[in-house]
Amino acid sequence: MENSIIKVVNLSHRYSVQWAIKDINLDIKKNGIYGLLGANGAGKSTIMNIMCGVLKQTGGDVYIRGISMLNDPINAKRFLGFLPQKPPVLSELTVEEYLNYAANLRLMDSNDIDDAVTEVMEKVGIGHFRRRLIGNLSGGYQQRVGIAQAIIHKPALVVLDEPTNGLDPNQILEVRNLIREIAEERTVVLSTHILQEVQALCDHIWMINHGDVVFSGSIVDFDNYIIPESLLVTMIGAPSID
Ligand code: ATP
């Protein structure tokens, strides 16, 4: 357990009577980009929301660097950053104001916040927009701001729920490159329903269907895996961008 960055053990969740995920097990021990691939409704967001402590599971647990999300969420969350699928709408704040707010939420030392905000804006390429209202940025730049808040405290693990969803092809390429850069320093777990996205980005893939893991393996294993046709039709293969 201690050498895992994140370990998910028998994770299950039920919304009222319906099980969304059942007995999910994942274990990440080294840096890389890890993908949860699945159609709409497969259970990806449910897994990620529980991983990041924003949804309480029905059963099982998540350990971040060996710390239980169930028993010690405050400490477990220190090691992770999260870009939810539907981030809070803070379009009336400037980029700089929002990142200051995010740093405060992370309980960062107030003496470090100005430097951390400047550094992360440079890192994700939004320094020139620091005084721009978030609501006036393009979708791609808004996504960069979302990624910036997820990495401002330099977490070991970054969880990105459908980070390229709704972006145009150029923005998709740019956000993918940014994800690759981030993964040079930390572990990234992302979700997508786009087959080509995991092929372009991920070292390891878990394919989720109706709340179960139906495939787990490296990108090389995945290339040799014959996806059942019933699942294939639910996945979107983006055209030739990588
Ligand atoms: P998407 O790509 O559309 O976001 P997903 O793979 O992230 O899909 P989830 O959002 O985790 O899937 O949903 C898994 C299942 O749980 C679906 O059947 C969904 O309808 C159901 N579900 C999700 N959130 C709720 C909720 N708040 N209340 C009831 N059911 C929910």
UniProtKB/TrEMBL annotation:
Q: Keyword Transport on this protein?
A: yes
- Work out whether the entry's keyword set contains Nucleotide-binding: yes
| Gene Ontology terms for molecular function | ATP binding; ATP hydrolysis activity
Query: Keywords, A to Z?
Result: ATP-binding, Nucleotide-binding, Transport
- In terms of superkingdom, the source organism counts as Bacteria
According to the entry, every stretch annotated as the ABC transporter domain falls at 6-235
Question: Which parts form a coiled-coil structure per UniProt?
Answer: none
Q: Which family does the UniProt entry place this protein in? A: Belongs to the ABC transporter superfamily.
Q: Which protein is depicted? A: ABC-2 type transport system ATP-binding protein
**What is the originating organism of this protein?**
Mucilaginibacter frigoritolerans
Full protein segment contained here: 1 to 242 of 309
